[in-house]
Amino acid sequence: MTPPCCNGIVHFNHYSDEGALLAAAVVNARIDSPADVARLAAEHDVLLERPPTAEDAAGLRRWRTALAGVVDAPTVGERIEALNRLLARGTSHPRISLHNGPPHVHFRPDDVPPERQFAAITAFGLAWFLTQRGLHRLARCAADDCTIAFADVTRNGRQRYCSTRCANRQAVRRHRARPGSTSPAGGPHLRPAPAASGTAGE
């Protein structure tokens, strides 16, 4: 049986959806202490190889800024450049490891601090997810009063809001603003045309 997510990229699942979801979670997270790093790891099934330290928290805050650069890239070219910077900083040559279970692939050395684990997971996972599923599938919520980042794992790839709650609130605003315009397109050039339903996604 494959071990728990010792490096976040044991399964191809972690190369794609899980890595991208973790990247968005890091962008949205408050990271003030080692406890915040441990909480993020627990919420996303990342088995840390070392207890997090204040230095790890500071490093993850810097990594959060780098991830936000991908989220906020306005064009395809700029998003690809930002992803390549993440890959250069966050990953190393792939290698097969016996660490924590049966043979599996790591994109980093064994026994690294939590900051490096998060970097490897999110850099490779996000790059894989966006190139395989669509470069537009990482965005910020289109609601007027929300800046939460999300990875769009919906089937149709047309998610515009971080949650159904935000979608509903924006629908109420549109209704109250009639006969004004519809909800703002507001997204980067990468965002596809909005779904007709205007919901958070399917």
UniProtKB/TrEMBL annotation:
Record region (Disordered): 169-202
Organism encoding this protein: Jiangella aurantiaca
Residue ranges constituting the Zinc finger CGNR domain according to the UniProt record: 137-178
InterPro entries: ABATE, ABATE_dom_sf, Znf_CGNR
Name of the featured protein: CGNR zinc finger domain-containing protein
